[in-house]
């Protein structure tokens, strides 16, 4: 008989051939590594297999659906979710492994990990807590098409150690990602009957995006990268709401 799999990792990936190997290698402490490949057209699948990942191809419409479908394939008692642009640090890896091996009834059944963001290769001030580790009996699934949220039962705990998130590696990637996801964001807002977009709404969301990044998140401490990222956050929101304006105009012209 094969040994019981206590900890299953799920990597969400699409066209990540350049960094999937680093993500998979950092999960060597897991008993099972499942790569949920959402229709990649590059070498993501072959690279992941070469590094020990079990690749399953999906064609999900949203992130919640993808995460839920992948969860049905794991064999472990615990599920650890990681994105392809994230890397589990050694300290966090040891904390997760110790928790899974020594867990006792009454302890938390879901855990938040501390994610450290890196923009254009530079660490961003502060950090964020992401709910990513679940005991299968407490995990009830994800909901939300783009900004998905996990549903769980039982207590939630926190683990120490770094979950490194290498996002916005270069300006070209940033623009491509914004152009892709802003369409989904705009369509979701249209479906939710968002109020009509006017010039002042565009100005407000743009300024809000910059302010939240530069002041709220402390981007001013990141020097030039802080300015670039914060201005870009405002631009990203502008594009989303400009596309929403376009969708609203198209809808009105047909009615």
In short:
The chain has helices at 20-25, 44-50, 63-71, 90-102, 171-191, 199-216, 223-254, and strands at 7-13, 32-37, 54-57, 78-83, 86-88, 110-119, 122-123, 128-135, 139-143, 149-152, 156-167.
Features:
255 residues; 7 helices; Spore Coat Polysaccharide Biosynthesis Protein SpsA, Chain A; 11 strands; globular; two-stranded antiparallel sheet; 26% strand; alpha/beta
How would you explain this protein's 3D organization?
- With 255 residues, the chain is an alpha/beta fold.
- It has 2 domains: 7-167, Spore Coat Polysaccharide Biosynthesis Protein SpsA, Chain A, CATH 3.90.550; 171-254, no CATH class.
- 42% of the residues lie in helices and 26% in strands.
- It is built from 7 helices and 11 strands.
- The chain has helices spanning 20-25, 44-50, 63-71, 90-102, 171-191, 199-216, 223-254, and strands at residues 7-13, 32-37, 54-57, 78-83, 86-88, 110-119, 122-123, 128-135, 139-143, 149-152, 156-167.
- Strands 1, 2, 3, 4, 5, 6, 7, 8 and 11 form a 9-stranded mixed β-sheet that branches.
- A hairpin with a 5-residue loop joins strand 9 (139-143) and strand 10.
- The longest helix is centred in the C-terminal third of the chain and has 32 residues, at 223-254.
- It is globular, with a radius of gyration of 20 Å.
- It starts with 6 loop residues before the first strand and ends with a helix.
- The mean pLDDT is 92.
């Amino acid at each position: 008989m094969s040994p019981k799999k206590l900890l299953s990792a799920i990597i969400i990936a699409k066209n990540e051939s350049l960094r999937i190997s680093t993500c998979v290698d950092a999960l060597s402490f897991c008993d099972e590594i499942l790569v949920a490949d959402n229709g990649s057209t590059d070498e993501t699948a072959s690279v992941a297999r070469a590094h020990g990942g079990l690749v399953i191809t999906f064609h999900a419409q949203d992130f919640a659906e993808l995460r839920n479908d992948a969860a049905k394939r794991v064999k472990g008692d615990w599920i650890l979710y990681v994105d392809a642009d994230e890397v589990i640090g050694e300290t966090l890896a040891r904390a997760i492994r110790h928790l899974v091996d020594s867990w006792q009834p009454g302890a938390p059944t879901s855990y938040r990990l501390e994610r450290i963001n890196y923009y254009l290769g530079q660490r961003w001030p502060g950090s964020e807590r992401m709910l990513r580790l679940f005991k299968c009996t407490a995990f009830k699934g994800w909901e939300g098409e783009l900004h998905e949220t996990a549903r769980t039962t039982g207590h939630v705990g926190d683990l120490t150690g770094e979950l490194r998130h290498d996002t916005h590696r270069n300006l070209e990637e940033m623009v491509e990602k914004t152009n892709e996801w802003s369409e989904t964001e705009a369509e979701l807002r249209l479906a939710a009957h968002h109020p009509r977009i006017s010039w002042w709404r565009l100005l407000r969301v743009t300024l809000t995006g910059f302010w939240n990044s530069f002041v709220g998140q402390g981007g001013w401490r990141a020097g030039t990268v802080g300015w670039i990222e914060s201005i870009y956050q405002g631009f990203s929101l502008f594009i989303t709401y400009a596309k929403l304006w376009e969708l609203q105009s198209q809808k009105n012209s047909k009615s």
